[in-house]
Amino acid sequence: MAVDPSLDDAPEVENYVSHTLKTTKPLSPVTWDNFMSELNWLNVAILTIVPIMSILGICYTKLRWETALFSVFYYYFTGLGITAGYHRLWAHRSYNAGKFLQYFLAIAGAGAVEGSIKWWSRGHRAHHRYTDTELDPYNAGEGFWWSHVGWMLIKPRRKPGVADVSDLSKNEVVRWQHRHYILLILVMSFVLPTVVPWLGWGDAMGGYIYGGFVRLLFVHHSTFCVNSLAHWLGDSPFDDKHTPRDHVITALCTIGEGYHNFHHQFPMDYRNAIKWYQYDPTKWFIWVCEKLGLASHLKVFPENEVRKGQLTMELKRMREAQEKLSWPQDSNDLPVISWESYLEQSAKRPLILIAGFIHDVASFIDEHPGGARYIIKYIGRDATTAFFGGVYDHSNAAHNLLAMKRVGVLHGGMPLGVDDKLVPPSQRLRVARYAELSSPYNSSTACSDHDDKEGMLG
Where is this protein localized, as stated in its record (predicted)? Predict the structure, then answer.
């Protein structure tokens, strides 16, 4: 298979992004002195003329209901050319499309005036490969305004990172659209939306304004929201390493491209929304095309791996919540006390032995739901059997609270780490840090009866 020549510029280094940033020089910063010369005037013209014409047109052109319905339909028509065509078909190859559907999407996408398939897909592949770095053409780290429109108005300070588009260079539909792009955008953006209302219900001016400019304004900013709003609003149910987020509002604004955290994790999946009730008309459009025989090989990431991503984030959130709680002192940090020392010290303070741990229950005597008598009765004794059902089989809450009152470990009292009774219920499914899983076990040095001086209960 032929390799894109641009890939020759991608040396195999430990970190391509940092290597590129060190070895290539960016353009000079934009200042008030060079501001005008650093603007991309073609994009500036497109992105200012369209809203100006829309506002003026709305002020002076009456909106007929037929034209309104047509404009909404044409918004989805050209928008799907981007979402189902440019994005999911050509940029991510999430499904296969027959020639008819390819030409349909190439023509529809041209009506969105966002560049040719090849240009758009090259930038988008770079965006995924270098998300949130300086090699990302619409780096969200530069701010909401930059990722929305700024990157198009100002000449990029750096060339986007290397991305392979050799497959698109060989695609006859992509080459055809690239060759005839100027003619296609004129016909699909303004001629067709003017002619249809004119011939259909005699509203050429309404079609020109609402089906042309106003519709184009909405399509533009709908797509731009995928680069800005989808990296700012919502949550990260699959991975929070980068900025992409999931949110229904973004989905409503972008014809279903709002579940962006999922998309960045599983970019070759033809879906953005994985739940049936989530708004993703682009997914359903592709699904219908498959049923009609126009599309095939719809790619779906294995459900098992999707759930792993969700579970990873769920565990991470649990870990964060866990870190905010107070936990019992580690047994390795507690002093080891002999039975004789336990009896001696319990004569001076209310200490109770349960499951090999010595507990100071001074603050709980009057609060004990079963009455103070049972607490006082077992001071200086082993209350393990009583606590575990001999008198009352205590709840998880009681186990957790008891563990917080540990002040020592009885020497030889219980084989530590073996009996399940030693671990409070709240800690039995404790979420461990990566460091705890990978680092060798380091126990704290505790005093024992074999030391010159026995540990004292704090």
Answer: Membrane
